[in-house]
User: Fold this.
Amino acid sequence: MPAFTTYDGTELTFDTFGDGPPVVCLPGGPMQDCAYLGNLGGLSAHRRLIMLDPRGTGGSAIPADPSSYRCDRLVDDVEALREHLGLDRMDLLAHSGGTNLAVLYAQRHPERVARLALITPSVYAVGVEITPEVRRATALLRRDEPWFPEAFAALERIVAGHGDADAFRAIAPFWYGRWDAAARAHRDAEDEHRNHEAAARYSDGAFTPDATRAALARLASPVLVLAGEVDLNSPAPAMAEVAALFPRAELVVQAGAGHFPWLDDPERFVAATEAFLAGPTR
Assistant:
């Protein structure tokens, strides 16, 4: 994999897929390597995907300073990657927990962001609340599926503050538009690619939502917020609130999709994402 040295001497790796205009991609987790993104459902047929392994994940080195796993400090790694690639401005795509990093990058370096695509985003950096009622309403969209009773009972335990490891395992079907063999294999592989120590430090003091929201309200770049219709983690009503934070945001709710929309309907995901990336920047 290609590599570069970031601001503190840590060597970071990234993978590339496809040809065409580059898109820098930030994985979620948080602190998961980029392998689970694959080629984003075939988006690589239209774009050159540059997929960063965050420090301490995948092929990227473990830093000397563990506090550098904080999300706000990871902004400097993204900036170092941009400089390494020789890009004056870049299209930036992020998924889930990685969207916290993307919006902090846009806050600090708005002039470097051409377009910003937030895929089933996390809400921590921007301070949007997701209520238990919204999560329950989203879960109930799946009430006719055979796994629903057990998963919903586990969700109720979690919402009530009594969730344990078994409960969180039981709600796994809610993350996918189809709970089939491919979804199970995808879920089983996730923990193998996450740095749990880094994840524990990722949010620690990193976010100032009021300041971030104020900065994003001035962002001139176009923004895509892509939500999954049945995504329990990032429900569509909350994603509408995220989109409303930006002056030039488009909300797309992908029908039948969960938290990984490129797995649930690759064709629809690629069509929506590529249409956004092909649009004007100003």
About this structure: The longest helix spans residues 71-85. The radius of gyration is 18 Å. Residues 3-127+194-277 form a domain with the Rossmann fold fold (CATH 3.40.50.1820).
